[in-house]
Each structure stands twice: as structure tokens, then as C-alpha cells.
Amino acid sequence: MLSPLATGICAGLGVAGAAGAAVGGFAYASLWPSSRIFGTALTAPRRPGEIALTFDDGPNPEWTPRLLDVLARHEVKATFFMLGKFAAVHKELVRRVAAEGHTVGDHSWSHPKLSKCSAMRIKDELKQTKEALEQILGARVRFFRPPFGARRPAVFRIARELGLEPVLWNAMTNDWVELSAEKIAATLSGRVVALTRRGFAMNIVLHDGNHREAVGKRGPSVRAAEMILERFKATHRFVGLGEWV
Prior knowledge:
alpha/beta, six-stranded parallel β-sheet
């Protein structure tokens, strides 16, 4: 039989363990792209051979135009999840993205972790961006991606109340800090091959912007996108997210 002291220690460890598990469970539910605990989102269907290129944190006046040129050369359409605070400044660039046949999506106004925001703040971030983009484009904004992928039940609920379809991903790297386009492309290429073998389409995330500054350096990301296009253009079909809804 355990002594009272030992019993107390074990009980304390049990509580600590349960608390740790709860924290870990919340982190998984709120951040991991494949988690459905806090709601479902468009990721990628069982349509092997299809790739959706998506770009976050723009528009970036230095690198988004270069990326658009790359996509135009390959005749591929992509989805750009934009921050409202940058879109409001670079309106002509937002219009160019849409005019060239790409989809514009809502990525919040200022890129907070929405899983830690109040319901009012979540609604303000999404609604302000949606309305700004729609005013610039004169067209409906249909898709929303949470910054960092961070969400809780209220995030997807509010998004859908605003007429936005939540979108996550199934292929990403650390391209926001990686300086080698070759490493970024190699990592994503490996995931494309693996997901194709498993029978899934690919929803790839790269970054044409930096949420901390309007003109973030995104040369490696743009070059990596071109390398992905060059490698898979002959074997895969690049699609817009609208084809998956």
C-alpha cells in the first residue's frame, strides 16, 4: 500500500499528465492541418494527379508580380490567400491577380492566431478582409485560410456565417525561412510523390508575402514554385480550388 505522501505524489503526476495531454490535444486540434476535431475544411480530395498551388501572406509588390509571370509562362492558375492590411494598400496588384484568372482568398486582416482570439476579433479579421477584397475586385470572395492554420470551433463557424469556405493544406515546407529554393522544391516534390501514391490530390502552400512586412523577400519561394511546375507539369494537372468544391 502506498503511503499518504506517495499517493499524493501519484495523484499530482496524474493531474499533470492529464493537463499535458489536454494541452497537446488542443494544439493538435487547433494547428495540425489534418485534424478535424475543431471542424472540417477543404484540404485535398482523392483525386491523384491534381495539384492546387496556393500562396499566403501577400500581396507583395516585389514578389507577387514575379510569381504571376511564372504562372503565366506555365499557363497555370493558383489561389492567393491575401492579408487585408496589404491588399488595401496594393489594390491594383489584387486586381491583377484576379484579372489573370487566379482565385483571391481571405487570410485575415493582420495574421493573428485566430485560435486565441475572441469571437468578435475573429469576425472583424475575416469580415474586414472579405469586404475590402470584394470592394477591390467587385466580385465575391469564396475561400478563407486561417493564419498558421490555427483555429477553434468558432473560427470555421464564423467563416461559414460570412460565406467563406475554410481551406487548409496537405503539403507545406518552411519556405518562409528556408533560403534554398532547391530544398523547398525537393521537400514538396517528395510530398507530391507520396500523396499521389496514396491516392490524394495535393494542396501546396507557399508564401508570396511576409505577414510582418509588406515587401518580404520571397525569391526562394517563387523559384521553388517554378521548379515544381517544371517537374510536374507533364505528369500532373494543376487546378484551382474551385474545382474541388
